């Protein structure tokens, strides 16, 4: 993960399994060919030496597989090996050397950046509210019955989010930035808590 082979003599690098060209291992890039290939554990050296004759397949190609095979043949014809040893490089850093920051970026990146959530995390609001909104957006909040059994008192907060959501959907009110939505939620929650406090004082 994150490491890529720099091919020298090709003795250590698996042709299909290892990442040494393209943007991923060839077994992923040419998956339809890999799954029917008889030489799934061959090395780059073997293919560089034997060319396309070094690969055989269990059946004839479909039309789409034939197109993939043409691309693979072109790539094979361009393989260059030398007398140096194969070396493993860290490919997530410009200097090709491992750094903890590049590893963290790899582990924390989900593949698609959520711009709205990024704005939410940067908003000047309490961290616990950010966590709650993040969980809501990803369906990570437990059912009301479970929360009630645990004596959870956050119903007011959920209600303010629900009201704001209804205005966006049924009254066609747009929110240009998630920060505006967050500010309103906090404002409504503050008002709700103030009213609840007044009711408690009246009871006393």
Automatic annotation (TrEMBL):
Residue intervals of the Reverse transcriptase zinc-binding domain: 98-160
One Pfam entry name: zf-RVT
Superkingdom of source: Eukaryota
The protein's name: Reverse transcriptase zinc-binding domain-containing protein
Protein species of origin: Oryza brachyantha (malo sina)
């Amino acid at each position: 993960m994150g490491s890529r082979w720099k091919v020298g003599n090709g003795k250590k690098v698996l042709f299909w399994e290892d990442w040494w060209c393209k943007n991923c291992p060839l077994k992923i890039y040419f998956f339809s060919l890999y799954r029917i290939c008889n030489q799934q554990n061959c090395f780059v050296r073997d293919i560089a030496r034997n060319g396309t004759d070094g690969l055989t397949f269990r059946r004839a190609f479909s039309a789409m597989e034939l197109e993939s095979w043409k691309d693979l043949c072109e790539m094979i014809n361009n393989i260059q090996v030398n007398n140096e040893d194969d070396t493993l490089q860290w490919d997530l850093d410009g200097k090709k050397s491992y750094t903890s920051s590049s590893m963290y970026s790899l582990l924390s990146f989900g593949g698609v950046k959520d711009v709205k959530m990024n704005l939410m995390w940067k908003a000047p609001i309490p961290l616990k509210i950010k966590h709650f909104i993040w969980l809501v957006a990803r369906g990570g909040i437990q059912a009301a019955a479970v929360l009630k059994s645990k004596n959870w008192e956050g119903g007011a907060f959920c209600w303010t989010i629900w009201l704001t959501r209804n205005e966006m959907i049924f009254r066609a009110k747009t929110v240009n930035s998630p920060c505006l939505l967050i500010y309103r939620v906090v404002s409504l929650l503050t008002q709700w808590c103030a009213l609840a406090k007044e009711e408690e004082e009246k009871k006393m």
